[in-house]
Design brief:
The protein is mainly α and about 325 residues long. It has helices spanning about 5, 10-25, 30-65, 70-85, 90-110, 120-145, 175-195, 200-210, 210-215, 220-245, 255-265, 270-300, 310-325; strands at about 160, 170-175. It has one domain (about 40-325): ABC transporter involved in vitamin B12 uptake, BtuC (Orthogonal Bundle), CATH 1.10.3470.
Length: about 325
Amino acid sequence: MSRNLKRNWPVYALGALLAIGLVLPLATGASALGFYIEVMLGGLMSGVLYSLVALGFVLIFKASGVFNFAQGAMVLFAALALARLSEVMPLYVAFGLAILIMIVFAWLVERLVLRHLVNQEGVVLLMATLGVTYFLDGFGQTVWGSDIYKIDLGLPKEPMIVGEQLFQGGILISKEDLFAAAIAALLVMCLAVFFQKTPTGRALRAVADDHQAAQSIGIPLNRIWVIVWAVAGFVALVAGMIWGAKLGVQFSLQLIALKALPVVILGGLTSVPGAIIGGLVIGVGEKFAEVFLGQYLARTFDLAGGGIEYWFAYVLCLFFLLVRPEGLFGEKHIDRV
């Protein structure tokens, strides 16, 4: 077995499992295949939204080495700001003001928190983000209120049926989920171009690779931190806007960030492509587990069934923590003595 195969065997194993999952339904007929594709598309659309939240974790961790537990609170706070502002002004104006609010928030985090914790232990920075989380929770409730608010993006609510000529009954697709997934995918592609093609994006990647080396060539670390927190705030705003339009803006919205934790563990804390692929894997996996594994467990062990999608992602990421702690695309750290 080659060294490359040994190092990347979880990637190949995951690809083999997905290939098997794609081939097996072919033996069950067109109608079963249509249902399978319907479930898979629903999982992919959910996975894109998970990836969007996970990107906020990855961006901040790459640039500052901080695991930002406040990302969920940022999603909630941004969604609350957009929802309440859109009640008194057009949505596009409210969106612009919400972006400005998240930029000011990023500047305050750098000025009041990060600047004073440079070169501190990771656990100190982690506790600082927890403090930011609880502050945003309380401050958001104080400023915006604690009711359930709506965000109307004008997306179509009615589902559509496609492929009736190929599959019996066709494939049911939610137009709202499809548009939301398209918006999230467009943002992900824009972020990829930003990091790869712009001078600021290259500076962010340089800081991620080595803080001291980046400072030695004149890259201002404080300004980079403001930029990356502002970008993460923008990502949180888009994620909050989409999830708020689907579920309503409420304080349980920040729990969505907990779904992004298995995504970043699976894909790797330092990998933007890993966050994207990890989100798709988690989204598809939990849908398949809920629909197919739930039915099997209910029949075999006489269980009530259901609820599998709530714990499937965490069991999968626990497996990867045991066999590949750095994730599918994360950087493997080797301590030389």
